Each structure stands twice: as structure tokens, then as C-alpha cells.
């Protein structure tokens, strides 16, 4: 159901995306009316959360059924302390992905807005729609005399125009639910140190899904379904040496190590030091000893002296059996995302970086090795056009079938053949946006009601 406005984009970005989704190849295939309908559905569905929560289970530590039962027990304890006790708790295994559990999201729900209002930033509001509480740093406005224990309505500031510390805000905003203040106003805005912890505990969210804060941290990991699929498509095997080029926040790194039974080596690279520290902490928490994380620029990860061998980067050419390039991108597939202030220039700036990373990835991959390229965006330039460019630039690369393949095929418009498009995997939630309220079982709906995401798998011959 559509209850939020379409994602708010700069006009130049909207026109660019419309040109992408109504390109000549698409128009020739489906016609103008269908192409335009898909485009408008995309803008609508991006501002709404998926109809389920995806949990990747640490099946290297316990069986999926054992984790499912433990998770159910923990979440029932949480629900007993909220207004959600009447909500039945379903935790379903995915029929094709052996380490995924799915939890239905209840929403949108009929929640009455209150006179006492808290305003949060758009990113915080998006997190609330996925089941999070409101953490103090996300609060930008609150009632003048708000104290701990007050019941408040929470609104998301779509355009980032609310002044921090304001007592009210009438700009462009959307209601995301009601909660109980855990802090008084002065402890949020009038302290020498930035406020930490939960600022508002959600008791009546517009979309009801469990909060996973502190719930089975070593057994249950929140991860979007397509991201889990990318790890399986890579196909890591015990004893291999694998490179995760843009590893933060580390979910895929830990997944790769778990899938290969923690036997071999997974090298994780990222340019930001504190993100590398987080990857190491997660690896330790999940008892994964095969992960080696380094703060390093992956575009420079190929050693200029192939004879110089070190444990860390840069590495000699052909050092890895498999490479995952989950590329930095415009992120226009994230859900929910009600507003983006990015310019067209910013969105288009990622393509050159992605190609630099591609050059490094191909050089670091052994002959006979597998390269998986993925993004969480919906543009042609960052997805299918990059595949066409890679096949033309690197004759040693060939596209490979993906397993599992639960998304749609690639999008028309980059000059790829029908056979090549079938080998790609594009998660396109707009294709089923008006069909999500059917009686189809959740696992069937979940495969399509995802974030926008793209996966390509190559073999180096």
C-alpha cells in the first residue's frame, strides 16, 4: 500500500532516471505505457520499506532451526514489553537460501498521531520504518518541555531543513509512529558531549517489525536479502583465498567466511579505519578466524613489484581465487528512502571509481577465478553498462550463471544480448509493487519485494 509520497529527488535526477527506465530498448520491448508505469512504481516503492525483515543466520555456529527457535524466544520477550503482544510472530526459513530467516512486517498500521511531536533526520526515520528505535543523535527537534516518559509522535524530516534543537517543525515531513521519550530535551540538546543511546523507544510504529538491538548478536545478522544472495553467488569454497574489495560494514565478509566453513582466507579491504575495526570486532564475535582486514584503498591493491610478497596489501597479480566487488554506488536502490539531495553530477561520479576498482579486481584474480560485481542502485550506468564495458575491456572475462537466481534478469538499454541479460540478476521491486498484497506465501513475495540491487558473475579465462 502506498502511504508515503514518491521518493523526493532533484528534478535533474528524476529526468535522468526517467530517461534510463524509458530508454529505446525498453520502449521497443514493453511499450511506453508499461515503461512509464514501472518508472513511477519505482519512485513509489523506494519510499516504502519491504514487507519483511531478512535475517542471515550464523549457520556455522548452530543449525538454522536452532537459531530460528532461539530468535523466536528472544523476540517474544521483547514483544511482551510492548503494545505488540497481539501480533503473531512468524519466523520462516527461505526455501532456497539455507542461512536466511524471514519475518513479516506488519504495516502500514492505523496509528493515531499525537500533539507532542519529535522530529528526526531522514536516515533515522528510514531506520524506524525497518524496526529500529530512535537513537538520540537522530533527533533534530522536540517539544520545549519534553521529559523522559512522555509519549510522542515521531516525524521524519524529508529534506533536512529542520534546525537542530527546534521545538517544532512544519516543513516537509512524514509520520513514522509513536514512542516514549527515554531522555528529557536538555539531555539531548544541552550537553557538552553528543547524546548517546535510545532517545525515543517506539511503541506504536507505523510499520511493526522487531528491534534487533542486542538480540542474538552472534547468531542473527540483519542483512538485505540480495546482499546474502551475492555471497552465495560468489560460491566460496573451503581453502580458497578470497578478496572483499569494499568490505564495510562487513556483513558480506563474515558471510563469505561462514559459507566456506572458516577454512581458507578472506581478505577485507576498506579505506576507513573505524569500519575496519568494526569488521574485526564482528569477525571475533562470530568466531571467524579466517578474516584478515586492512585499511587500504582497493584501487591501489595491485603491487607494482610482483616479486614482492607481503601478508597485507598491495598484493601481487593473480593472488585470489575469488573477488567480491560490492562497489561504491549512488545507493538509489535503498529502501525505505523518501528523499535524496544528491545532484546528477554526484550520482554519475561513481562510474569512474567502479571502473578503477574493476581494473584492480581483474588483475588480482587468478585465471579460472570468479569475480562478482554488485551494487545497491538501480541505474543502468552503474550496472548493465558496467557489465558491457567490462566484457569489452577485459576479453578474459565471461558472464556465468548465478545460483541462486531469485531476482529478475538484467535491464535492457546497455546493448547486451538476451542471453547475457538472463545471466545477470537485477532485483527490481517496481515489477511487483502493485502485487505485494496478494495471498502468495511470504518467501515467494520476499524474492521480489527487496531493495534495488544488481549482481553480475564473471569467470576469468
From TrEMBL:
GO biological process, one term: RNA methylation
Active site positions: 376
One of the Pfam families matching this protein, by short name: Methyltr_RsmB-F
Domain SAM-dependent MTase RsmB/NOP-type: 145-461
Binding positions for S-adenosyl-L-methionine per the UniProt entry: 246-252, 270, 326
Entry keywords, A to Z: Methyltransferase, RNA-binding, S-adenosyl-L-methionine, Transferase
Gene Ontology MF terms in the entry: RNA binding; RNA methyltransferase activity
Highest taxon, organism lineage: Eukaryota
Keyword check for Membrane: no
UniProt family annotation: Belongs to the class I-like SAM-binding methyltransferase superfamily. RsmB/NOP family.
Name of this chain's protein: NOP2/Sun RNA methyltransferase 6
Biological source species: Seriola lalandi dorsalis
